[in-house]
Amino acid sequence: MKSLKHCIAAALLAGTSSMAQAADLEVTHWWTSGGEAAAVKVLADNFNKTGHNWKDSAIAGGGNARPVIISRISGGDPMGATQLNSGRDAEELVQAGFMTDLTELAEKEGWKDIVRPSKLLDSCTYEGKIFCVPVNIHSFQWMWLNRSVFTDNGMEVPKSWDEMTAMQDKLKEKNIIPLALGGEPWQISGLAGVLTVALGGVELHTKINVEKSVEAAESEIMTRVFEALGNARSMVDPGNVGRAWNTATNMVITGKAASQIMGDWAQGEFAVAGQVAGKDYDCLPGLGINPVLDTGGDSFFFPKPKGDNAEEIVKAQLAMASMLMSKQVQVDFNLKKGSLPIRGDIDMSAANDCMQKGIKILEKPENILPSSEQVWSPDTQGQFEDLWVEFFSSPEMKVADAQARFVNIIKTAD
After folding, report:
1. pLDDT of 17 above 70
2. Whether pLDDT at 240 is above 60
3. What is the DSSP letter of 299?
4. In 3D, which of 59, 63, 16, 24 has the Cα closest to residue 40?
5. What's the rounded Cα separation, in Å, for the pair 149 and 251?
6. What is d(CA 211, CA 410) in angstroms, rounded to the nearest whole number?
7. Cβ(117)–Cβ(341) under 8 Å?
8. With left for phi above 0 and alpha for psi between -120 and 50, is residue 379 left, alpha or beta?
9. Domains of the chain and any CATH numbers
10. pLDDT category, 371, cuts 50, 70, 90?
11. How far is CA 111 from CA 77, 219, 270, 332, in A?
């Protein structure tokens, strides 16, 4: 059997649109909500146009999907392609040599010249070689508001977190939940991260997440973050435990809840429900206090294939990688997903009001923050999640005790 390097070279010479040797490519991902399913269809339909076949293998929930994906790849049962978060999710798999090298294709198509911010492609790079394709920019730094909940009850639509919290009692009087929340660990951890940026700004986020500053972790402003998260307990309903994020989004869409702090993937749910940004719902980047974005998102990795058809699989992998980076797919996919494109050279005039806000924020480099997946190892992320969940779920837990644990995590974080 030819070496993997020769397979890749042959595929590049032949071109990725060849219909000669079509291959089924099993694609794993955790995009199962209504908006996500619409976005997946864009990718599947475009991949099938290359002459290959997208074999969908969805696993609901990132927390459920990641262990299965990692186990299959490391255990010798690789899928053809898999979605993971942009960042360090696949770090050990890449280092162990399990992923197909995309460097020749990336150089041929000039990915370094078109991917923005460049750190997204840096997250795909190991020892100078490229092993994944970033497909979107997602940020958790958003609050979503049902406009009619406020206007129908004689209230102004809030323009900041402070205004929102000031209205919570009036909302409760109307039997409206002020803040829709799902009790999954990543949702509570994400809420804490958004409050960190909103209250402490870029400076606190950078000191904590980039510099890993113990002093910043011990600071008074970080104490305020813990207090704000504690105060948010009074804004959610008792049924939040275990609730899926898209169920919480639906609570906002249907007016059962006034707001949700969630990543911009929530827009896909608003779109499926036929709602229009700026008319039916509003969005506040940075909670209306610090309008910045952390640039996480999703990337596709391509595990090295096994078996007699490895050469055909590699050709299909390269065809998919090229398709994911193409201009029209970037536009169509991200409009459905509610995310921002990773290319800065495409026409996004069809984007809604909230997406346009995000695009404008990305124009200034000082507004771009790394996501938690880019700066923390999966183990450290898990420690943070455990702490935030325990604190949020335990009103009796003192802020000082929770912050002390936070400081200890920072001290040993990788």
Report:
1. no
2. yes
3. E
4. 59
5. 11
6. 10
7. no
8. alpha
9. 4-138+296-356 (3.40.190.10), 142-294+376-412 (3.40.190.10)
10. confident
11. 29, 41, 32, 19
